[in-house]
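Figure-free illustration: sequence to structure, shown twice.
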Amino acid sequence: MPSRRTAFRHLLTSAAVVAAMALPTTSPAQAASPKIAQELAAAAAAATPPVTSWIRRHPADNRVYVKVLITANSADPSLASLRQAILGQGGSVHYVYLSVRALAGVVPAASLPLLAARSDVLAITPNRLATRTGSLVQNTTGASAIPKIGGTVSVNGAGVGIAVLDSGIDWDHRSLKDANGVTRVVRAVDFVALSKGFAEGGWVRKVDLSGLATALMTASAGYRPTGALAALARPTSTLPDPYGHGTVVASIAAGSGGYRTPDPGGVAPAAELYDVRVLDANGTGQTSDVLAGLDWVIQRNRSHNIRVVNLSLAANATDSFLVDPLARAARSATAAGLVVVAAAGNAGKDAAGNEVYGAIGSPGIEPSVITVGAENPKASDPRLDDLMTSFSSRGPTRSSVVLSSGNRWVDNLIKPDLVAPGNRLIGAVANQRNAPAPTGNLLATTYPDLMQAVGTNQPLNQELMQLSGTSVAAPVVAGAAALLLQANPGLTPPLVKAILQYTAQPLPGANLLQQGAGVINIEGAVRLAQALRTDVRSQVEAGTLSAGANLLAPGKSLPVMASTFNGQTFNWGRLVFAGGGHLLTGNALFTTYQPIYDHRLTWVREVALRNAVSYKAADPLTPANTVPSAIIESNASNQMLLTPQVVLVDGLAGSNSAAQRKGLFIPTATLSTLLGGGRTLSGGYALANGFVLAEGLTLAQQRMVNSAGFVLAEGFVLAEGFVLAEGFVLAEGLTLGSGFVLAEGFVLAEGFVLAEGFVLAESTGDAAAKVSKSIRGEN
């Protein structure tokens, strides 16, 4: 995201109820170092605590305390023993989470090794700083070209809920009201206010606040007010979005238009919006609040039909998706049936103008999340002149974790998943009620030219502003997901993701790590969604849909794999990412059920995990199987992942070479053209028996094998620092500057330059934020 001077900024810090994960654990004697995040350990050991939001010396006892998220490996959802241990060390507990088996709290820095030595502690991370990633939308994405359902019902997101976790939503803006003038912001909850209610700014010692926080967060989770009570439940704040970012995001996802010029219509203009405030008036917040917000949404997604979550924010992605609390909470949300959309981040270039690879933030590092980069639509509906923005964060993901063997696992996922318009988009301006904007809007006040760029005629509660960044690209995809789920409510989150990728239009020249599968094509995505059966999710959750089962709706066939709008006809890219580093294609992806569409399953190379969601019993207000009571993660059992008819095209892309534009550096459009040309897929083939997860292997040993025991290549594997083919040394003799070495066990410095002119970032921490592109966008 842009820096504080030029864009939005989020300060995320939180704990997640991390589902118990069967990662190999180290012995108590070895546990302290691998389990404690490196920057946390360094800060705790420093003679003088560094100046950060998550560490301070308490004046009462002169001891150093840290705000932490502790990810647990425990069968007890209340984490009672761990909470007691924290209190015994003089710390406090703020939250215990549902979405991830974890807690948030404050502990003495000196107690970190003792806590890490516990067998029920998986990882300890600080409440890190994070940066916000910060009509034309309808026309350029194809949303305005969608045919009606059955020839009569508009595909506009009606009946689908989108939760926006951000700085708030101006519920009184005309863009966010229906035709009768009633706000479509159905509910609002403020976790910023809740966390600020903690004594001493959250630094109070020796108290357990988790029970009160949980009670407030889960009150009436399964009850949706109706009639007059529904009106009473709607938001009423006179200063709903004092920072001004969340309102723009919400309007791009679901704003209505047609009442002024330029038209600010969003992608799903009839969708319901849920305002989950996790960022304060300065655009900063805590990860603990984001996790609490995800918990709140998960507990209401069935009763309120919230199907989509938008996270236009990115936290520092140092820790692997296996243990990162925000990634794990997003994974739990996916397992509960929610489509989670996240901004990739705005760290695509450094201060010197070098292109940076490897700067995807969390939760964009999570495999189940739809991670969105930003492309530049050039302020025009046709796509002939569209380009990738230079600021959009590139893949691969560089987060990591140390396993019990002492080896470092680096995620190295192909990201982003796709891109969407994210340059100079028009959105609604938040304001203090009945006062003209930018009153009550820090962002618009700080950057008045963002409003001036839209024009001088700005009627009250109709004001618009211009904004750039992956944070405005993400809600384009969130709105698209709502359209798909209206057109076909039975889609699972990974099936939504696959449809959006397969139908995308690759931009010329941009490679897989820059644009993923290509630019979102909503027209094609909705047509493909309408061709599929509408009971996939229910059958998957019931366990009655087997691999290879027919996926097409009765009387339906696959649509023509090309789209026409804005006077242009183009072929779909026909690529889907799976397993972290594999490229898939073929009609079988959508004519037959693939087990990877199970939203409770996560597969990355040799790791396969499964989340089990359990629900509370019925009560007078809530039916059974409505409100989740626990989400538990464990290793997946032996099963098929893909059917034999699905085609791998890893080999068609070639070995990784930045200079020759091969492998992950192949332009997505080039790869798509090769698929359309009927080329022989050298190394990319359908295995006779599909993929089967080997049985009886540990997490550190699992490999994808077929029934003959043949070990498959792990797709595009990126070892410590750059792109490596599996088992090979760096291609073309690429070297690193200033004595950095690519070898297991060496920690890479952030932002070093590779010989071919590429910069590889380790994460999207503060260093990346300093070089983010201006919110004003590019030409």
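We now fold a second protein in the same way, so the two outputs can be compared directly.
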Amino acid sequence: MVGATLDRYKIESKLGEGGMGVVYKARDTHLDRVVAIKVLPRDKVTDPDRKQRFVQEAKAASALNHPGIVAVHDIRSDAGIDFIVMEYADGQTIDRIIPPKGLGITRALRYGVQIADALAKAHEAGIIHRDLKPSNVMVTDDGRVKILDFGLAKLLDPEAASEARTRTTPLTDAGLIVGTAAYMSPEQAEGKKVDTRSDIFSLGVVLYEMVTGRRPFVGDSSLSVLAKILNDDPVAPSQITAAVPPEVERAVLRCLRKDPARRYQTMADLKVALEDLAADSASGRLARVSAAQTAPSWRWAWVALIPVFLAIAYFAWQARRPAENAPALQAVPLTALRGVTRYPSFSPAGDYVAFTWTGPSQDNQDVYVQQIGAGSPLRLTSDPARDYSPVWSPDGRWLAFLRQRADPRVSELRLIAPLGGPERHVTEIRPHGAFLRGVTMAWCPDSRCLVVTDAVNETTLQDALFVISTETGEKRPVTRPPEGKLADTDPAISPDGKWLVFRRDFAPFSGELQVVALGRNLVTEGEPRMLTPTVLIAYSPQWMPDGSAIVFSAKGALYRLAMAAGSKPERLPFGEDGIMPVVSRPQAGAPARLIYVRSFADTNIWRLDTPGAGIPATSPPVIAISSTRGDFVPDLSPDGRRIVFNSDRSGEIEIWAADTTGDNAIQLTSMGLIPGFARFSPDGQSVVFQTNPEGHGDVFVVAAGGGSRPRRMTNHPATDAIASFSRDGKWIYFSSSRTPGGAVWKMPASGGDAVRVSPGPGTLAIESMDGAYLYYSDGASSDRPGWLLQQSLKTGEVVKLVDNVIAVSFAVVDGGIYYPERTTASDTRLKYFNLATRQSTVIASSLGNLVLGSIAASRDGRSIFFSRVDSSVNDLMLVENFR
């Protein structure tokens, strides 16, 4: 068959063969997709019962819609060959991956939950599988379970499922044995009428084999196996594998009871029981309970433990001694996945880590779970929206995460079990942006609520920290930034629940870590105390397990800070390019672990030439300015000869200037404060930019030729940022939070009082070439697409021009405006808005992953400069024995 064509399906390879047919990998030539097709062997076509059962498989499976059940696309016949067209799932069946001693409890429970969830869906539809076995359960490459082969499925009788949605005449009546001997239920082995509890027995056999590596019923022949299923009790799993906890053993053996009335009565109940066991296993609580249940109970057993206590005391004393000979801590890669990994979070036992990844196809950011030291990551979410910030609850039962909606400012707070399953919506948050970094969360110590950033209200730009109940979604404020401060973010609650560390954002790219005492119900007591200076630009704090210190990210490195008064941050000997550190709780015999994201991006400035303003480019872009570090956010001088840009090529992000070829580069600032959004004056002699020497944004001007100190233009407790010159050079426009919600302001270029210009919010205001109009975006946060507005400087009238323009990312030229537009998470196209026709056209596509604020153009519109990420490293790094 390989190489042949059935209907529109080109057979590529053989995948397997069973009693119900041969399965091939094929390509749908009409839809250009890979499928699996099951072909009924020619010598069996004459058997009407077998053919009817084959058709029944297609009808039964096609009625099911569940990610854990292989989807059936079609049933067809060509040249006398009957076949089913199914979803192609790349992976291995469970029988091929069970090692001699079993899969391990956590992994077996993970698969068991998914199998039970899929079968519960089938049972709800009135369908019994009747042939569940490891060879009919596939595990895909991303850890998802897919149930195969409903060829022996039998619709429930109406009396057995009054709510079944699909019913047809049963194919298999009482008295006829159908299935695979070793996995049959007793009633199935006797040829009696079966119901959903038969599948529960079969799943019990599969679970038994997954946790022990052996089948519960074995024999020299099918007949002897059936006899044992009917008459013998299986050996307790713990007698085969001592690591099987009593709770897991009880659940498996309950599935294997001879009398269906003594098993779990529904697959949904079994799923819930397995979910509870999986959560206990992931949190480490299962192992602790099991150990406690097997502890000696005789009266004088403690006497025998005296030597143990002495040994523990000795080793504890050794652990407190100075670690002169302790091995140096070393970071090693935990993942090496293509794409972007972010937001790691440890399970309570420290043996699993949740994180986000853009996936094998690099098309979407979802939540994954990885067991440390084993296997491939398990994908938990698959919604087309962006999922981020997963965090594991202290009791191990839930992963909380955020899902970004179509409006990027809106995110849903959702919960999911750590090994997968249905999601639960809690509430929505609408933070104003948290300025260029995603919102993070922290669980309350009792696992009943979360602390997360949300908007204070709709009239100001401020974000604060709120406590959100996971049961009701009710929100209560925890912090409130003072007037002029922008946001409270990055919450971290101490292990004893008495302290809250968080970051207070003062301006874009500016903030400091603060700590405040917590009373009952997470009510703050007293005023926050500063922990890190603004110049350090610290974020992502995490507590050490004993509460004595925190670790955090700052300036492309990891730091530790003792909580004792007067302590200073110390840079860790590893962690270059490190962000988002997390620390596990130490377990018995297992010290704490540290995981962080090693994130490095090589950004360069590119040039795109067009025949004229608004005319599509005829050649691809070429690199203009590059280095081994980051070069980004360019602005072009009025004469088109020089570019001013940000770069960290000197170790700190500063402002640089160079020819458009990258030659003659000079450093304009040496402030160590991440100055940004530099723009030329009309005569090309000066550059205006923002930075934050006092912890809030202010506007500065520096000579474009270098050799001078920056001159401060604003000194207001509010945030003044993202500045530009008027076309005549007499004014400096800037965005400011001096009024609720923010607005565009201007001040004399020679210095003086500022006045408000825009009636509403606005960022990056740029005058038209004739100075008659002002263009700015209304995006409340720097990375949220919004309207591009035109304001008459004569009448004050405001007109909306075009939607989906990213704030601070547009360039005004003669006759129009260039702006980038995201097409995917990692690709962008360039568009041009014609001011005369009020129409947008595409100038160039597939420009790559552009950096925020990355667009500049010559006055005639023929040359456009932008910065993009050309290569990046995003790995999770693991440090064992972290101390």
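Summary for the second example: The first strand starts at residue 5 and ends at 6.
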